[in-house]
Amino acid sequence: MMKEGLLLVISGPSGTGKGTVCKELLKSEKDIKLSVSATTREPRNGEVNGINYYFLDKDTFERQISEDEFLEYAKVYDNYYGTPKKYVIDEINEGNDVLLEIDIQGALQVKEKYPKGIFIFILPPSMNELKKRIVGRGTESEESISKRFGSALDEINYVKEYDYFVINDTVEKAVEKIRGIIRSEKCKVNENIEDLISKFKEEISC
Question: Residue 122: how many CB atoms within 10 A of its CB?
Fold first, then answer.
């Protein structure tokens, strides 16, 4: 029996750098597959169906909701976004690791449907550093910065729902910590250990 891959679910408050961490992780770990989300919004210039998103019409998306084809989904500003279940489960069953970079509410939905996932929460080194990063974007009004910072404080409480936390003081250190988590998860004694024991017994009998 083939060993299942891991489902890695990474999330955290806005400004923690989780997107950058995920990009660097995918560069260093070529065997990890990135899950592509589905959406009902229109493609932006240069976006490619199946690479950036799976672009679906509203009727198709709602039919797939009713048929339980998403690990998680949400409606944001009149458009749906979701994680197609089939791709993720197929890749895991093939022995491949799959990465979901997702918001906290989506991660909690995934945890209900696939509790075997590895849930990793990205934290800032400090709240002062988080605010500095949000301000440093230079794209937010004072009101928006205050709102994001307040939301981040609330979201940090959800870290208790996750298996691991990683402090993103530098991207390189954060990626190395996540790689360490993956290595340790692959060495866990779980249902796959029976396959390994059977393999050893077969070698002895040969």
Answer: 26
